[in-house]
């Protein structure tokens, strides 16, 4: 395949960015999207230009780094995947592909396609944990029985990879799906109960402080989430918050 | 310098307890005056940072990713071992210890492995308390599965995302300490060298990957937890950024590097499909619990499948060669990884590979789906269930167990593994070698510790499945926090370590000079060009099977690539900004040295063991014909290499291994 790429280039956080056109040729449909980007970058390096900076690491859909906005969608046209899992078989010879960074006030651009997701870190630091001492003197694991159903549901919530696609795709740049997933995981488990009220209050407060917008129930986040985190988690977070404020 | 493993005296089952009873402790009030640097925040570094902070030390933690949650541990799929004996199938500390030593082909240190088995049960308790959602059975108790090389069910798991959940557990513990101000987290920072003062590790030089700024950080001790070096092969299951830089830099400053040639080649990865490929994807070994591995019996069928005139599902049971079940009846599809990998290679080398490149075998779930389907039909009291119904019921069970893995496979290969067998082939996965450490997990540099995959100590020549996660968390939560205290007890009056000293000046200058070299070199070739060439030499000559001639050639070829690299490498952009090519250049430069030492180590070890298969050393006859031939008389040692300039000049030190509690035996899985 031969493709035209329109890519956002921005030297650093303070520089003004712009879209730049590139051509790549001989792209195999078996390549992943990031491998196609590697081909472009190799080409740029060989001609002495700076390669396009983008975040990536595991390349198997689990680390949550490879944030890119492709043809107007977070992680591109396929469903339930990250950019590293997107394959070129989703595109056709001669296509023009637009590639931009995730855009949200709370995710400032660092360079090209790389954005700063530290806001997510600070939300987790505000309460996304159970305050247990890491001494190894905890009770035997089987003395906290948990129904399979609750464990499975907590696991589903816990699969969030912190990629930020939900934020990037939301017209309000809301982080509720992400925060809802974390709150839910602990709300569903007996271990998380004691701090439940403080946890949800603190995390939501931090979320607001970071400048994320509010949820207006559009549901775009759920559609774009690579891990299928469901809107139920937002509902559960809201319930937990109400309970906490009673 | 003589190698002292500092293994405590006394019976193996009391060593760790006795040791803990006799070490020096740091008074809680004094811990506030002590700083510890932890480089790497995967399972090992993350758990260590959280626990040290919990104890009261001031921790500075570093990771090259934008968050500790993205460390490569996140990718581990299958599970984590622990000797809990919840299943009542005969597990015990001793049995986990025995399986691990045997699985490692008797090349690990007994005392360390015993301690690992001993603390394993605590790990599960700790993680459950942190809210890690392990799989549960219907009674609400923890579920287990089995992994290669063992006969009990001791692997705890969270779907196919165990590493993710364990790491999120450690990460949440870290977040709690970050919020309390006890951990200062440096994301997007890369350690580029260690600084020694009076022979002791007292700090690091790191680069801020956003601004390019070179920073000095001091501490009373430095912990390296930077993961494995499998990316020396270019293609591996590791994350793209996984690297050896920190481990290699401390090696150059005096830490011995142990057993570099022990690399695990994992049998169940998605085969490679073309030259553009950037990495290989692992399919968890847990799949071998239910998947059966085979190739066609007849070479005509292989040809027909490759041409597309036959499908694997067209072949009947007796037209298939279930070669693992045939060769290893006791363990069948669950033989350890090195054995399964070599058996796949043997079949593919003989011409039975089932894909276009001839490098793939089948992993088939049809039998499991049918078996589970029938069981479900019974449970739900469905009489005379149709084949479709049975299939549907069985598929639901397989999906519940491995759904995300099947989805991952389908996304990459574009085939539905519920309908047609998966294709798999071995790929580089884990490095058992690493920085040499003593029983305290301290390297040969005083005050410099090394934990997790980055060290060498617990897995010998081969790592059994689900034991790397166990080791990372054991080191970080339960071992290092004790052993480091013993060392730091001497430092309560030292005070802050200043960074405006000649020692820091000097190392910072070395680091800066190297960066300046890269951005100013007027070369013509990209970093990847060299990395791929190195990877090819490594795979062809230092891969799954090795021989003296190939290894000698590899050493010369790697040296030549390295020389060309320093002349011809091209790094666009500048030093004072985010520059991903510059990051890669530094890492590949280190791989180009490590690769040569790796080959040298493999050359010296004239025996086959675990992940190191020397073609000259195979059993020639008897029931073990063709299997690895170990040589305990001459090679029951850890090779610990001392840096002397060129990798070819490295000096070998031997830590003789003692097996007092386990008898050295031929490792048979027949
Ligand atoms: C695909 C896959 C599946 C696996 N599945 C299993 C399994 O099921 N069970 C099992 O037991 N094991 C499994 N393993 C092995 C296991 O995941 C790893 O051995 C283990 O997670 C390594 O943990 P670690 O903490 O030592 O290193 P890592 O998790 O690799 O962490 C390395 C850390 O070091 C940092 N770092 C590296 N270099 C620098 C530097 N120079 N400066 C600053 N920071 C640096 C990184 O940012 C990161 O934080 C699997 C491995 C892979 C690749
Ligand atoms: S909720 Fe989904 S989209 Fe949002 S950060 Fe988590 S995984 Fe990504
Ligand atoms: S690179 Fe890790 S999720 Fe894509």
Automatic annotation (TrEMBL), chain A:
Its cofactor is [3Fe-4S] cluster; [2Fe-2S] cluster; [4Fe-4S] cluster. Belongs to the succinate dehydrogenase/fumarate reductase iron-sulfur protein family. SUPFAM superfamilies: 2Fe-2S ferredoxin-like (SSF54292), alpha-helical ferredoxin (SSF46548). Pfam families: Fer2_3, Fer4_8. This is Succinate dehydrogenase/fumarate reductase iron-sulfur subunit. InterPro entries: 2Fe-2S_ferredoxin-like_sf, 2Fe2S_fd_BS, 4Fe4S_Fe-S-bd, Beta-grasp_dom_sf, Helical_ferredxn, SDH/FRD_Iron-Sulfur, Succ_DH/fum_Rdtase_Fe-S, Succ_DH/fum_Rdtase_N. Keywords: 2Fe-2S, 4Fe-4S, Iron, Iron-sulfur, Metal-binding, Oxidoreductase. The keyword Transferase does not apply. Residues 151-181 form the 4Fe-4S ferredoxin-type domain.
TrEMBL record, chain B:
It comes from the Bacteria. Pfam families: FAD_binding_2, Succ_DH_flav_C. SUPFAM superfamilies: FAD/NAD(P)-binding domain (SSF51905), Succinate dehydrogenase/fumarate reductase flavoprotein C-terminal domain (SSF46977), Succinate dehydrogenase/fumarate reductase flavoprotein, catalytic domain (SSF56425). The keyword Flavoprotein applies. Gene3D superfamilies: FAD/NAD(P)-binding domain (3.50.50.60), Fumarate reductase/succinate dehydrogenase flavoprotein-like, C-terminal domain (1.20.58.100), Succinate dehydrogenase/fumarate reductase flavoprotein, catalytic domain (3.90.700.10). Its cofactor is FAD. Keywords: Flavoprotein, Oxidoreductase. InterPro entries: FAD-dep_OxRdtase_2_FAD-bd, FAD/NAD-bd_sf, Fum_R/Succ_DH_flav-like_C_sf, Fum_Rdtase/Succ_DH_flav-like_C, SdhA/FrdA/AprA, Succ_DH/Fum_Rdt_flav_su, Succ_DH/fumarate_Rdtase_cat_sf. Residues 531-669 form the Fumarate reductase/succinate dehydrogenase flavoprotein-like C-terminal domain. The keyword Oxidoreductase applies. Residues 35-469 form the FAD-dependent oxidoreductase 2 FAD-binding domain. This is Fumarate reductase/succinate dehydrogenase flavoprotein subunit.
């Amino acid at each position: 395949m031969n493709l035209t790429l329109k890519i956002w280039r921005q030297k650093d956080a303070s520089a003004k960015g712009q879209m730049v056109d590139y051509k790549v040729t001989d792209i195999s449909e078996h390549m992943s999207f990031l491998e196609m980007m590697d081909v472009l970058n190799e080409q740029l390096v060989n001609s002495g230009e700076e390669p396009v900076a983008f975040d990536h690491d595991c390349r198997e859909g689990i680390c949550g780094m490879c944030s890119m906005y492709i043809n107007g969608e977070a992680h591109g046209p396929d469903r339930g995947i990250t950019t590293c899992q997107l394959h070129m078989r989703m595109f056709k010879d001669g296509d023009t592909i637009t590639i931009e960074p995730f855009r949200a006030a709370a995710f400032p651009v660092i360079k090209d396609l790389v954005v700063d997701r530290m806001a997510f870190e600070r939300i987790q630091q505000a309460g996304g944990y159970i305050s247990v001492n890491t001494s190894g003197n905890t009770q035997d694991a089987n003395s906290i029985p948990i129904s399979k159903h609750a464990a499975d549901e907590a696991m589903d919530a816990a699969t969030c990879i912190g990629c930020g696609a939900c934020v990037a795709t939301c017209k309000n740049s809301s982080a509720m799906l992400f925060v809802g997933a974390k709150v839910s995981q602990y709300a569903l488990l007996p271990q998380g109960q004691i701090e439940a009220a403080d946890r949800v209050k603190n995390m939501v407060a931090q979320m607001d402080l970071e400048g994320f917008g509010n949820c207006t129930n559009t549901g775009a986040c759920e559609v774009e989430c690579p891990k299928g985190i469901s809107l139920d988690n937002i509902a559960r977070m809201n319930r937990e918050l109400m309970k906490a404020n009673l | 310098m003589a190698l002292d493993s500092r293994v405590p005296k006394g019976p193996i089952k009391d060593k760790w307890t006795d040791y803990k009873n006799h070490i020096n402790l740091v008074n809680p009030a004094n811990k506030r005056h002590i700083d510890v640097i932890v480089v790497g925040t995967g399972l090992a570094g993350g758990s260590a940072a959280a626990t040290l902070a919990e104890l009261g030390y001031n921790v500075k933690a570093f990771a090259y990713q934008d968050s500790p949650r993205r460390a490569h541990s996140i990718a581990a799929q299958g599970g984590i071992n622990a000797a809990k004996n919840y299943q009542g199938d005969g597990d015990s500390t001793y049995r986990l210890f025995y399986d691990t030593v045997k699985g490692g082909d008797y090349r690990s240190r007994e005392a360390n492995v015993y301690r690992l088995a001993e603390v394993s049960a605590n790990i599960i308790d700790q993680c459950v308390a942190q809210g890690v959602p392990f799989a549960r059975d219907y009674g609400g108790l923890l579920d287990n599965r089995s992994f290669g090389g063992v006969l009990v069910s001791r692997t705890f798991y969270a779907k196919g995302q165990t590493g993710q959940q364990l790491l999120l557990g450690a990460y949440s513990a870290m977040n709690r300490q970050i919020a309390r101000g006890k951990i200062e987290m440096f994301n997007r920072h890369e350690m580029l060298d260690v600084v020694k003062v009076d022979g002791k590790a007292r700090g690091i030089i790191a680069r801020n990957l956003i601004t390019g700024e070179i920073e000095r950080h001091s501490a009373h001790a430095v912990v390296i937890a930077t993961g494995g070096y499998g990316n020396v092969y270019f293609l591996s299951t590791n994350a793209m950024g996984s690297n050896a830089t920190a481990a290699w830099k401390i090696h150059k400053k005096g830490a011995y590097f142990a057993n570099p040639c022990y690399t695990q080649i994992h049998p169940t990865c998605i085969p490679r499909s073309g030259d553009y490929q950037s990495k290989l994807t692992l399919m968890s070994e847990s799949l071998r619990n239910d998947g059966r591995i085979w190739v066609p019996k007849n070479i005509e069928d292989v040809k027909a499948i490759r041409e597309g005139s036959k499908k694997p599902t067209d072949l009947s049971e007796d037209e298939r060669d279930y070669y693992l079940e045939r060769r290893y009846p006791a363990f069948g599809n669950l033989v350890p990884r090195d054995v399964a990998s070599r058996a796949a290679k043997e079949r593919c080398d003989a011409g039975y590979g089932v894909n276009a490149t001839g490098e793939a075998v089948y992993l088939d779930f049809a039998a499991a789906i049918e078996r589970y389907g029938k069981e479900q039909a019974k449970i739900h009291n469905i009489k005379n269930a149709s084949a479709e119904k049975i299939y549907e019921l069985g598929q639901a069970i397989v999906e519940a167990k491995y759904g995300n893995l099947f989805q991952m496979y389908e996304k990459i290969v574009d085939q539905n593994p519920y309908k047609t067998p998966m294709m798999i082939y071995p790929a580089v996965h884990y490095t058992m070698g690493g920085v040499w450490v003593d029983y305290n997990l301290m390297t040969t540099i005083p005050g410099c510790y090394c934990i997790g995959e980055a060290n060498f100590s617990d897995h010998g020549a081969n790592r059994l499945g689900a034991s790397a996660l166990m080791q990372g968390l054991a080191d970080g939560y339960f071992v290092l926090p004790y052993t480091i205290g013993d060392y730091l007890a001497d430092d309560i009056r030292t005070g802050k370590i200043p960074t405006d000293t000649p020692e820091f000046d000097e190392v910072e200058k070395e680091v800066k000079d190297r960066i300046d070299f890269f951005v100013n070199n007027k070369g013509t070739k990209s970093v990847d060009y060299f990395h791929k060439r190195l990877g090819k030499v490594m795979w062809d000559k230092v891969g799954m099977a090795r021989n003296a001639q190939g290894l000698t050639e590899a050493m010369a070829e790697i040296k030549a690539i390295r020389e060309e690299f320093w002349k011809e490498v091209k790094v666009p952009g500048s030093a004072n900004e985010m520059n991903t090519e510059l990051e890669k250049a530094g890492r590949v430069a280190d791989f180009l040295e490590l690769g040569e030492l790796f080959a040298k180590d493999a050359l010296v070890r004239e025996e086959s063991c675990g992940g190191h298969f020397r073609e000259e050393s195979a059993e020639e006859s008897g029931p073990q014909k063709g299997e690895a031939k170990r040589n305990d008389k001459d090679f029951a040692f850890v090779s610990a290499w001392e840096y002397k300039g060129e990798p070819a000049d490295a000096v070998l030190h031997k830590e003789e291994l003692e097996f007092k509690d386990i008898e050295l035996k031929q490792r048979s899985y027949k």
